[in-house]
Design brief:
The chain has about 150 residues and is of the alpha/beta class. α3 runs parallel beside α5.
Amino acid sequence: MTAISKILVAVDFSDHSKYIADYAKLLATKLDASLVVVYAAPSLSQYVGFHVPPNSIESFVGEIVSGAEKSMETFLSTNFGGLKATGKVVTGYAAEEILATAEKEDVGMIIMGTHGRKGIDRILFGSVAEKVVKGANMPVLTVRPPEL
């Protein structure tokens, strides 16, 4: 079995993210692994052709990223104090960005939550977790958080 020395943890800063962090903390401690915590902000580039000025979109995305970076700092200190953990805020489609970051960071495992979408929501939005599981070349631990 391959040693896992680095784990990517995908979060969305929802209430469920703490639950995902608990699993990541447990595994990182047991495996003596470092953590790369990733939040994928939407790029909104698909809206450029809808009579919305590109600079307005870029400004809005910039505000999202800035807010996410502050949230990341708080999330890391609250959930991963004492562990080797770094945070990354990326922009784009979540599944693609998670997979690209996993490759770039050469992680041995991905941990992420599921939202359990059903019906029309699943048809419209798809499943980020499903796309990551199908596209990853490393183990992916998906955690369905309890109902809050």
